[in-house]
Design brief:
Distance between the termini: 79 Å
Oligomer: single chain
Amino acid sequence: MPINSFMKTAIKKIIFLITVILLSAACAYAYQVDISADNLEYDQNCGKIIAQGNVVLVWQGKTVRADFVEFFIEEKLMNAMGNVRVEEAGNSFFAESITYRYDDETGEIIQSMIYSSMIFMRSERMERHQNTFAVNNIKISNCDFDEPHVCFKSRKGKITLNERVTIYNAVLYIGKIPVFYLPVVTKSLKGGKGFSSRLTYGIELGYTSEGGASVKNFLQYQFTDELRGRLMLDYFGTRGWGYGTEFDYFKNNTKASFYGYYIRDLFADSSRWTLRPYYWQRINKEWMIQSQAELISDESFNNLYNNDWNRVMGTLHSYFAATRQGRNSNLLIALDRVDTYNPGQGEFEATSISLPRVTYNIFPKRIIWNLVNNFTLNYSNDYRQYSAGNFFYKSTADATYTVSRDFKFGRRFTLKPSAGITESWYNKDNYDNEDNTFLTRYFSTLNSRLRVTKWMDWNMAYSVRARSEKNSLRIDESANDYGIETNALAFTNFVYIGNRTTVRNYTSYNFLNYRTGSSVKWSPLSTDIIYTPKYYMTVYLRQTQSLEPFRFSSAQLDMTLGELEKIYFNFGAFYQYYPDTLKDSAGNEYPNPMAYRAKEIDNVIGIGLWLNPKWRLDYNIRTTSSLDKMYSRMNEHEFRIYRDLHCYNLGVTWRIRGVYHDVFIKFDLKTNMPFSKAANADGQIPDNNDAEMIFFPWR
């Protein structure tokens, strides 16, 4: 028989057979079943359909793939075996075998693995009752390995498709090691985060030169997309045990955080602690409130226990503020407090309290003849310290009115004169003496901008400010500065070389005269160069030249190559003369511009790269070298290694800061699974990574 005739006959038989099967299935089940396979057999006497090889069945939104499938039409029973995969309502089932009865939607699944809502569930045996499964010997994990690195294990539980999985008497395992027990573990299968995916544990092992061996532990839980909490328990060797907690809440109109930590430092024989609450909320389109408190036991707490950017905190700032942002004005009402560390007493003392501080500002507005005016009013009732242990309240207020106008002469030259007046008042001097005083200050500026060529701009600014006598409008000419507080001319030159290079030169001249003493007339000439030849390369150069006397003052170079998340190289160098000092009659030291005692270079070098998709290295170093005394010292260097361990993050940090050094091994579970980013009730998509940067930058 010719090949073409054979193919036509075979195709006709296959089409006929599939048609018979589909008609039989449709009659039996009252819905259509689409079947494809390498081999199909239909036994009409037994009422049995057999499909073998790459079997694919589709019916009522369900898709079944297997090596072997048999149907018993009368019994309304299906058996599937060999690499079985079922896709139903966004869920995927993998199993050795499946038995399913169509009339009552019941069945049994052997050695199954279900993937739903970014979670993997493995069970030895599952019994189906419509949309619910009773499971035996189940594992729940976000790890896709057959033997997951981290999982919850339980003997029994239940799964409701597209609703929830719940297991009872669950034990958390890391590898083969049981960690802790929970009576119930449940997780939503609607795209959100359940208990296991919300829970994060991390451990950091280390050694420090000041405390010996250390172990840092944290347990973090994501209560909602907006609220997260963390508990910390740390062991610092000879220094003892530390306890901490933090919470942060992040929403489009509300932000809040709280961080607290306590340790009974056995080495220092003292209790050391810190508290940091923060709150921000937008009440409506115009009003918002904000508050912050910084409370800490001693100035060096962060250096040991917080790893904060501010390792030494000599000043604490706490406040509460309410702000009204209108269309034409802004109102700020604040309560401020500043505490300064007293080394002699070994504690912080309140050195300034504003109760309240009020600022009202009317935005610039155009009036007649193209004039633009604006107005600012400030009031503050300050609690001040004028000597050790002596505090008093002093009220101050000032109002400033300014008017300005732009004049354009062609396309190249712009002139902007402005003038204003400030009226200041205070009720006491700086020594708690009654002194009801008004001071008037007159000021004026003249700014100009000239486009010399298409690649060069010149900016010149002249400013003068005069002060009146107390409670008078006359200039205080009898003062040492003749009542002139500012009288200076500044010049800035901008040069644009191509599209990638900008050069800026700046200097100023001071016209002030004094009855006694003198001041430096010329400010240092500074030159800045910004060079960005490619998106991955930035070079910044800055050089300052003292003009009075004429002497090289400093030079700075900052260069960045690459991208931080791929491969990068940072290099920074700062070279400076440090002036010698002179003493006045009162014994106070001040810089001597005519004499210099040291030439010093500070260097910063940073290197980082991914060796492969799992390994990352970072190295940062800071050094100081004296050219006069020919010495060099290592201020700080840090070496970090990161290893991706599938379900874990493993990092090693070795750090030296002067005489203090430490090494840490950090191990924690991954929390970067791509969970649903559904918008919240306000239509905003929460981004907890941004919240982390805002609230806890020291991490």
